[in-house]
Amino acid sequence: MLIQFLIFFAGLFVLYFGAEWLVRGASSIAIKYGIRPLVVGLTVVALATSMPEFIVNLIAALGGKDDMALGTIVGSNIANIALILGISSLVLPLVVAPSTLKKEYPIMMGVMVLFYVVALDGVIGLLDGVILVLSLIAFLLFLVIDAKRHSQTVRLEDIEGAPEPGEEISVPRKLVLLGAGMLGLAIGARLMVSAASSIALDLGINQTVVGLTVLAIGTSLPELAASIMCVLRREADMSVGNVLGSNLMNVLFVVGLVSLFRPLEVDAASLRLHFPVMLGFGVLLFPLAWTSFRITRLEGGLLFGGFVGYLFYITAPYL
């Protein structure tokens, strides 16, 4: 058992650095070829930071662990809102731009509702995957068009994972970062899924619960680190944007692409409990952010407390 835990954390360590290297390589190459920083941040970097969830889910799905795969996505979306925004706002109240609540927030909620709808029949199949991927393409086109309409100056250092000012990265090093990142993601995800599956089997824990807790929190750590860094740099408004973008990519990019490889079966417990909890936290976010366009420490404590309560509820039968 101890060895499995060590393997899991080793996989998490490799996964984290794999994501970091992939983001740095992808963003620097995009900027090198003249892609605007704003578009890079909303597309290349957003997709790259969803790679941990994608690789973990692909490996889990191909191994027949559908419950674990979908649990990771639903749990990650819950953790992004309740855990990440909760902890971030406890560090410093989060400022929320009104435009974010008018544009990105409704899109995120629409995507999560779509996720629930395509899962209601118990299977997220090929057609559902095509719908999600087409929605992803439409969303990316919207970002590009919207960025052109609302041109604004975005500092390179504001893009999470981009090179620091004055830091020159040679083309060979960029390619090495990309390759090392993809390799790290593959190895780390394989170790995490294998270890988590063995631990669940030994302890008699449902694989959905493993996905909702250990894997979901583990794959959300890059977003948590990014949000905390934004808060400490007095750019708290970026934290909310990171969370909304991550939830969008988790559904459209991760679930969409994975379901193109093979159908994902959805268990009844997830439809009855976990999907509604995900949507519930999403709905709760709006009134919290709308009041004074900020999430206060008290409201952050409410989100974090709700997340802890949810974790306790689903893990209590195994304690």
What does this structure look like?
The protein has twelve helices and four strands, in the order H-H-H-H-E-H-H-E-H-H-H-H-E-H-E-H. The protein is mainly alpha-helical. It has one domain (2-318): NCX, central ion-binding region (A middle domain of Talin 1, Up-down Bundle).
Shape: globular
Range of strand content: under 5%
Task: State the low-pLDDT regions, or none.
Answer: 152-163
In whole angstroms, how far apart are the ends? 17 Å
Q: In summary, what is this structure?
A:
With 319 residues, the chain is mainly α. The chain has helices spanning 2-32, 37-49, 51-62, 66-91, 98-102, 104-119, 126-149, 171-203, 207-232, 237-261, 268-290, 297-315, and strands at residues 94-95, 123-124, 264-265, 294-295.
Name the features.
mainly alpha; two-stranded antiparallel ribbon; 4 strands; 79% helix
Describe how the helices and strands are arranged.
Elements: H1 2-32, H2 37-49, H3 51-62, H4 66-91, E1 94-95, H5 98-102, H6 104-119, E2 123-124, H7 126-149, H8 171-203, H9 207-232, H10 237-261, E3 264-265, H11 268-290, E4 294-295, H12 297-315
Antiparallel strand pairs: 1-4, 2-3
